[in-house]
Amino acid sequence: MTSPTRVLVLNSGSSSVKYQLLDMRDSSRLAVGLVERIGEQTSRLKHTCAATGATREHTGPIADHDAALKAVAEELARDGLGLDSPQLAAIGHRVVHGGLFFTEPTVIDDEVLTEIERLIPVAPLHNPANLTGIRTAQALRPDLPQVAVFDTAFHTTMPQSAARYAIDPKIADRHRIRRYGFHGTSHAYVSRETARLLGKDPSEVNVIVLHLGNGASASAVREGRCVDTSMGLTPLEGLVMGTRSGDLDPAVIFHLERVGGMSTDEIDTLLNKRSGLFGLCGDNDMREIRRRVDEGDEEARLAFDIYIHRLKKYIGAYYAVLGRVDAVAFTAGVGENAAPVREAAIAGLETLGLAVDSGLNAVRSGEPRLISPGSARVAVAVVPTDEELEIATQTYALVGR
Question: Which residues have a catalytic role annotated?
Answer without folding.
Answer: 151
